Amino acid sequence: MTDLTTAVPAATGAAEPRPRRRARRLPPSLVVGAVLVGLVALVGLVSLVWTPYALDDTGDGARLAGPSAAHWGGTDRLGRDLLSQLMAGAGNALVVAVASMVVAGVLGVTVGVLAGATRRWVDVTLLSAVDLLIAFPTLLLAMLIVTVRGASLWSAVWAIGISGSAVIARVTRVNVARVLREDYVTAAHAAGTGWWGTVTRHVVPNVWPTLLVQLMLLGGGAVLAEASLSYLGLGAPPPQASWGRLLQEAQSTMLVQPWGAILPGVAIVVTVLGLNLLGDGIRERTDPNLRGDR
Amino acid sequence: MRAALLRIGTLLISLVLASVVVFVVLRLLPGDSAGTSLGVGTTADQLEQLRSELGTDQPVVTQYVQWLGQVVRGDLGTSFVSRLPVADLITQKLPITVPLSLAAFVMAALVSVPLGVFAAVHRRGPVGVAVSAVSQLGVAVPVFWVGVLLVLVLALQARLLPAGGFPRTGWDDPAAAVRSLVLPVVTVAIAMSAVMVRYVRSATLDVLDQDHLRTARSLGYGRWHALARHGLRGAAVPVVSILGIELATSLLGAVVIENVFALPGLGTLLLDSVKARDLPVVQALVLGLTAVVLVTNALVDLAQRAIDPRLRLSKEVAA
């Protein structure tokens, strides 16, 4: 038996010349997305240990100064270095994106697997809850939570994560139900694999790529939503740097120092665009039906 | 007909569930609204009196049933902060928020439906590629940033339009009112168009790939003619659904954008109430806005069935 299985690849390998490495180019959106996200992540990580100036350093008193050799992005109305604030904002955005993905992922996958792989009444009950959650706007859920718990980074993360979990649950459920109908699952079942074994060995690996795409898109949405919330004053409170609040603070003085209102916006767009492209790229790479011009 | 009634039934159930969610989140998360609204230095007697005034000393279920009964009768309670009836506060703000979100929605639909169809038909042409690139970028742009940039360029530098605020006289001076709404409307419309163009384009692409459209082309119909006769009805189903979602988005976009332009509408009221923990106002506004979203979703479903007979059949069989 062992001889047979090892002999087969060797034989075919000898019979025909091995094809060169399969020339399958990575989708451009995957490359661009990964570069953008990697860049933001790098800046965010660096900001944890080093920023050009301390975040509360009001410096030599040059307030609302334009970009210069000492302050690449200029200074804000208190004379703080804008570039340092932006770098710390990247760290904040990263935390929001990752934490929301984790909340939405854990909640959504649990609900989705339960709905897709257990009894029908569980499915129906969970699905109607998910439908309601999908219709409930993230911004309003965030406002409800902030009303009760006060504005903080974690209020925002919970609201965004819970909202996002609805979509993840939907996607998980559809795919779990689809995989469970496949013949090989029936075969595994007949061979004595239990419920848990089926889920971990067959369902999760098959559903994972689709989920990864949804999680990336969710991360982009999370960064946008947190920026909106902190712009409105409902996000991370002052010592913590946040792009949305930087923008809001700069708005009243933007005729004098427009960069304060422009650069945080650029940072948000780069991050969200990167995550969206990364999601699209993973989808193109893993789903052959979607390759091409969508 | 039966399915339509069923859809209305589900809508009513979702509305009740939404009210439960709003009520439970505001009541059961830690934090005492009566204590917060009176502030420091309150005596226990005052606190007790306010609690019995608000009904928060009653069991939660009793409170909920009472509240729901009042809401159904149109009584939304009294603001903790201004002591005015919540219904009056909301009615005052409608003349700003409703025109803002409706105008933005109409503008976005008028721009993005033709543009999306065009970009799909000429998907490899320069316009098609440009539209899809710009909308990919546009989805990543926060709506408030669009507003801030428009204020910077068109209001502060070019001085063409006011940077914010709404005339104190309201709609008595229509020209001034319209002028102050132009930038907010354009802002929300730009943000919405980016999303809508993408959906319209991909819905049209799906239709263009279908067999019956290819057959029509092979029979000698031109690209646009075939699409107009055989494609648009099919594309309309997903487009109606995205228009419905976007109508709700325009309302929420208005909520954010009112704060950029200092417009005293529902969004500003909601934000101020959240910051002041003005429970009755937050509760009424969140429930009201959610209800608009849920009703829109139901209308979209019904509209889709009217457009596409296949949908009617399959759903009726499933039901």
UniProtKB/TrEMBL annotation, chain A:
What's an example GO cellular component term for this entry? plasma membrane
Which SUPFAM superfamilies does the UniProt entry name for this protein? Answer: MetI-like
Q: How does it sit in the membrane?
A: Multi-pass membrane protein
- Transmembrane regions listed in the UniProt entry: 30-50, 93-117, 124-146, 152-171, 211-234, 254-278
Q: Which residues form the ABC transmembrane type-1 domain?
A: 90-279
Any one GO BP annotation for this protein: transmembrane transport
Keywords assigned: Cell membrane, Membrane, Transmembrane, Transmembrane helix, Transport
Q: List, alphabetically, the PROSITE patterns matched.
A: ABC_TM1
Concerning InterPro entries, the annotation shows: BP-dependent_transpt_permease, MetI-like, MetI-like_sf
Which cellular compartments is it found in? Cell membrane
Region annotated Disordered sits at 1-22
Family as reported in the entry's similarity comment: Belongs to the binding-protein-dependent transport system permease family.
What is the protein's name according to its record? ABC transporter permease
- Which species does this protein come from? Cellulomonas triticagri
TrEMBL record, chain B:
Show the Pfam families listed in the entry: BPD_transp_1, BPD_transp_1_N
For this UniProt entry, which segments traverse the membrane? 102-121, 133-156, 176-197, 235-261, 281-303
Question: What is its membrane topology?
Answer: Multi-pass membrane protein
Query: Where is this chain primarily localised?
Result: membrane
What does the record list as GO biological process?
Answer: transmembrane transport
Which compartment or compartments is the protein found in? Cell membrane
Q: Which InterPro entries match?
A: BPD_transp_1_N (IPR045621), MetI-like (IPR000515), MetI-like_sf (IPR035906)
Name the keywords, alphabetized: Cell membrane, Membrane, Transmembrane, Transmembrane helix, Transport
Gene Ontology cellular component terms for the protein in this record: plasma membrane
CDD domains, per the entry: TM_PBP2
Known PROSITE patterns for this protein?
Answer: ABC_TM1
Domain named ABC transmembrane type-1 is located at 94-300
Q: Which family does it belong to?
A: Belongs to the binding-protein-dependent transport system permease family.
Q: Which PANTHER family match?
A: DIPEPTIDE TRANSPORT SYSTEM PERMEASE PROTEIN DPPB-RELATED (PTHR43163:SF6)
Name listed for the protein in its UniProt record: ABC transporter permease
Task: Identify the species of origin.
Answer: Cellulomonas triticagri
Provide the taxonomic classification.
Bacteria, Bacillati, Actinomycetota, Actinomycetes, Micrococcales
